[in-house]
Amino acid sequence: MCGIAGFSGEFPEDLLPRMSQVIAHRGPDGDGLFYDAATRVGLAHRRLAIVDLSETGAQPMTSPDGRFTLVFNGEIYDTAPLRKTLEASGVSFRGTSDTEVLLHAWCRWGEAALPKLNGIFAFAMWDARERSLTLVRDRMGVKPLYFATDPRGVLFASEIKAILQDPHVDRTLDERAVRDYVLYMYAPWPRTMLRAVRKLPPGGLLVARDGRIVRETRYATLPVPPVDDGWSVADATARLRAVLQTAVDRQLVADVPVGAFLSGGLDSSAIVALLGKRRIDCYTIAGGTSDRDGFEDDLPFARTVARHLNQPLHEIAVGPDMFREVPRMLWHLDEPEADPAAINVLWICAGARERGVKVLLGGTGGDDLFGGYRRHAALMFERYWAWMPQPLRVALASITQLGPQGIPTFRRLAKAFSHAGRDPLDRMLGYFQWSDEAAIARVFAPDVAKQLSCDRFAESLRPAYESFPTPPPQLQKMLLLEQSHFLTDHNLNYTDKLSMAVGVEVRVPFLDPDVMTFAASLPARFKQHGTVGKWLFKKAMEPMLPRNVIYRPKTGFGAPVRSWVHDSLSEQLDEWLSPESVRKRGLFRWDEIASLRDRDRAGKVDAAYSILSLAFIEVWCRIFVDRTVPDGSW
Fold first, then answer.
1. Best label site of 228, 313, 475, 495, fewest CB within 10 Å?
2. What is the pTM of this model?
3. Distance CA 164, CA 169 (A)
4. DSSP single-letter state for residue 488
5. Contact 340, 32 (CB under 8 A)
6. Three-class SS of residue 513?
7. Distance between CA 365 and CA 369 in Å, rounded?
């Protein structure tokens, strides 16, 4: 697991070490550079040594014939069979790294090697004979990869800040991305906060030659197999346990200690349960709760699971002062994601690294595959009211907005019915919004709002939805949307960036291709069963975990944001969203932000996350646009 960067085009050679140094946190165990003056191609690598800790795993790595040079970030879990196949064809290996297996696989099969890879990765492959640079990202986008183009050529990196080491990269904001960060807490790929910088899509492949992009494609998309409605519950639960067990076993391969997240939720608890008698260090957050936010404290459940499975549990204490970490967090994130779960990841990974653990297993993806979010239940519940004439549905939406938004039950009802008056597609897309469209539209400064007026708010998610084959059922399409954007652009982004900020690799067994394909084949009734989300998954875990852990109410891996926004964080928000700051930035209207905060305090709207998003965008701009953070300060 590492960091990569580089370019193809008219860029100075001394840009490479600057790109490498600014992402040194991703690879504290070594670094390397490759530069070809004749073709103006440069590659940089920062190494976090996980498999083959010797010099035979160092990068950039060049093939024996000198044709291919590789910089690779990630892990390939199925290298053993690939290695045997390659050895049978006459390949001799110097070491035991998955990097060397990937290099020789590419030498033999080229792009046809990609479907053979089970892993999480982003890499750049230079072909000296064809004078081509190929960028590749894994099929789920677990590992990030950004690129920028201008008349001089193409730049790429694991993190935006490395691309910005070129002082000529345009830092003009992308207003549509700004809107999306407020509306969704993330910008759907390929957008970022900067017009000049784009994300390579999950399963994406880009080929550049002589500083020009000559091909962009997606070699892999999300699995959409036919739904198999013939499973018995007993057979389906047994199969689910089996594919998850295989995924966990695959991802334990490492030459360094492996630990695990253990939040007390079902997903991370299931991963730890599947370890069986293998003892590893587990980590959780001790952060308190709030009635205003409406979720239970995770810590007692994490302790219950640790005792039940006889696993050591390390508790990392956090509180409102965690927001002192916001500038550091946003610098590492590259994107203004207003989710405290990101800081939790940073603190847990820092605690693990202090104890010598460089790899953590995580439960990311369980909800996105098996149907664990409240919006999945809301979608299935539509059959009880979607038959109403449109005027009645509009009235239903209006009535549910009248309840006090400071009370979790009323807040959730308001969110579930907020788009009831729309057509089915717009209702589905609306479930992904964290903010009220009308309120957010008012917050934008007039010039910015004018630029956005031609765009419907849901347009950012519509292309992904329309790319899915039909049928499948609506719940399956919603899960595909989860996986396409919320999972990739939000959860996986902050998980990668804030674990790698302290030199820790997070592995995600739920996103093993076999698990994903099996989950996609399950009928909707096995996912959302009445009011029970992740129904089959919960049944599968009954022999392994306590029932009060399996069937506890859904809570986020987060923090009492609403309480903090109203109380302990209020003064800091006053500074980030001061009239002077807002007017100077020119993105938003201070009077509308002030009104939004007042209505939120009064319980008339639920806007804590929206307010936090507006503040985080300002802090992000100070760092990346105003350039107030000196390189290497974090």
1. 228
2. 0.94
3. 6
4. I
5. no
6. helix
7. 6
